[in-house]
């Protein structure tokens, strides 16, 4: 049984796809989403970009929340700026929302790939707004600041941990004969580790683990997982390909 911890709706979609392929899968989302603390200030941040700034969307959720906020305030996405996104799905969502073309890196959907884009090489003196959720990595902003840009985050949404009784949850997973775990963020990896009571920890760490980056694999090794594989990307298609090769 494959346990998918990815949030809804992507987690539910992945489970349906796996079942359609003949695999046993179940879904226990570890986080939900809520409006971000800075979303109300998005129009202000966009105005500060002027006609030469850059807007970077870190996730599809950030785009969705930003689009809803701008629609409610009857404010269009600005013209004259450059639009960028981490990952093809996020880029497609931003293109559909804004009506403008969006640049995104090829390959893995990570900050390291994003920083290779030509549009982010000469950014000294430019204003950049990054649409994202709460927390997350600061590598992108840190590097762009070092390159001379003025970088501002806009927290469009918050990741909210879902409260569970760890004992009950682990017992239900074991009854379902879960043997493979899919985790798509470091935050959720730590969450499921902390959620698991000590008497179930050995069982958890002996599950086959699928993650979406080498950074997560390193985190998993530190926590004690010995059987961990890395998907070639973070989208559901990449996760399915990896699970089919287990």
TrEMBL record:
Pathway: Porphyrin-containing compound metabolism; protoporphyrin-IX biosynthesis; coproporphyrinogen-III from 5-aminolevulinate: step 3/4. Belongs to the uroporphyrinogen-III synthase family. Keywords: Lyase, Porphyrin biosynthesis. Catalyzes cyclization of the linear tetrapyrrole, hydroxymethylbilane, to the macrocyclic uroporphyrinogen III. NCBIfam families: PRK05928.1-1 (NF004582). It catalyses: hydroxymethylbilane = uroporphyrinogen III + H2O. It is an enzyme of class 4 (lyase). Residues 13-240 form the Tetrapyrrole biosynthesis uroporphyrinogen III synthase domain. It comes from the Bacteria. The keyword Lyase applies. Its EC number is 4.2.1.75. It holds the Pfam family HEM4. One of its GO terms (biological process) is protoporphyrinogen IX biosynthetic process. GO terms for molecular function: uroporphyrinogen-III synthase activity. This is Uroporphyrinogen-III synthase.
């Amino acid at each position: 049984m494959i346990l998918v911890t990815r949030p809804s709706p992507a987690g539910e979609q992945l489970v349906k796809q796996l079942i359609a392929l003949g695999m046993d899968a179940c879904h226990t989302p570890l986080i939900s989403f809520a409006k971000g603390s800075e979303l109300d200030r998005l129009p202000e941040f966009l105005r500060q970009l002027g006609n030469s700034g850059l807007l970077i969307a870190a996730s599809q959720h950030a785009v969705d929340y930003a689009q809803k906020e701008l629609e409610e305030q009857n404010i269009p996405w600005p013209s004259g700026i450059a639009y960028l996104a981490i990952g093809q799905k996020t880029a497609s969502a931003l293109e559909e929302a804004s009506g403008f073309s969006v640049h995104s890196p090829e390959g893995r959907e990570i900050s390291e790939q994003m920083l290779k884009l030509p549009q982010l090489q000469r950014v000294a003196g430019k204003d950049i707004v990054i649409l994202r959720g709460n927390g997350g990595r600061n590598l992108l902003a840190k590097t762009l600041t070092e390159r001379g840009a003025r970088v501002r985050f806009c927290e469009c949404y918050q990741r909210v941990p879902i409260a569970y009784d760890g004992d009950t949850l682990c017992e239900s997973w074991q009854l379902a004969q879960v043997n493979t775990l899919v985790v798509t963020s470091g935050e959720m990896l730590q969450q499921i580790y902390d959620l698991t009571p000590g008497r179930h920890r050995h069982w958890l760490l002996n599950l086959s683990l699928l993650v979406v980056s080498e950074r997560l694999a390193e985190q998993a090794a530190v926590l004690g997982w010995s059987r961990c594989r890395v998907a070639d990307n973070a989208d559901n298609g990449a996760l399915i390909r990896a699970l089919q090769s287990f």
